[in-house]
Automatic annotation (TrEMBL):
Function statement: May play a role in fatty acid biosynthesis and insulin sensitivity.
Entry superkingdom: Bacteria
Keywords assigned: Fatty acid metabolism, Lipid metabolism, Transit peptide
UniProt protein name: Enoyl-CoA hydratase domain-containing protein 3, mitochondrial
Record-linked Pfam families: ECH_1
Keyword Lipid metabolism: yes
Family, per entry: Belongs to the enoyl-CoA hydratase/isomerase family.
GO biological process: fatty acid metabolic process
Molecular functions per Gene Ontology: hydro-lyase activity
Organism per entry: Nitratireductor indicus C115
Amino acid sequence: MGEAALAGEHAVKPLVSASSAEGLLTLTMANPPANALSIAMMEALKGALERARDDAGVRVIVLRSGEKLFSAGHDLKELTAHRKDTDRGRAFFEKTMELCAGLMQTIVRHPKPVIAEVDGVATAAGCQLVASCDLAVASDVSRFATPGVNIGLFCSTPMVALSRNVSRKHAMEMLLTGEMMDAETARSFGLLNRVVARDALGETVKGMAKLVASKSSLTVKIGKEAFYHQAEMNLSEAYDYTVRVMVENMLARDAEEGIGAFIEKRAPEWQDK
């Protein structure tokens, strides 16, 4: 994908910059001061993700921030400005929430793994963004919250991603109290995979991304899709579905190569098919 600048239609400056190397696509958000998920920011992110979908040079995507905050969530000033509309903002609120829901589902349904690299505060829809990613690594100074309840706007859409990552009791604690939590607490809740020192964050994420990128991209695609699909099924349905997935996977060239390489004690040569 090379170096590129990606912006929403109404952005004066690029809101998302993209750089790629070694099969890793890094998307860096830049919407100071709070890295708010405005309409333009969400359109830019969604567009960048969609362009990466069929890019064979992209095997793993890293989502990070170039600001002091990862993301403070929706742009409340943008939302409030539309209260002056004749419908009191209903149409714009619907557009914002639907676009956000679409962005989160784009991440979950993306054929490439998406890793959140968090250095700073992630709140509300920003926390939802972290929860929607397949993996998440944060610096030890990062903090997380779903504080909508504090301003009379319950974090109902962030709740979808949150409740699919952490236990119900932990999710409700975050949603009902709105309190900020440190990175280690977020990790213990299940929101994060790892917490590392700030100066080790970039290299830790890169190492994780390169490890995932070294696998067969076809196998990873099959596995990611199956993981989220079976999670919504009951036990017997999930086993019926994953049996079919395993059989089809076994018939793939990369499975034949990978198993053969394991038996022969050699490195596999992936063809991603």
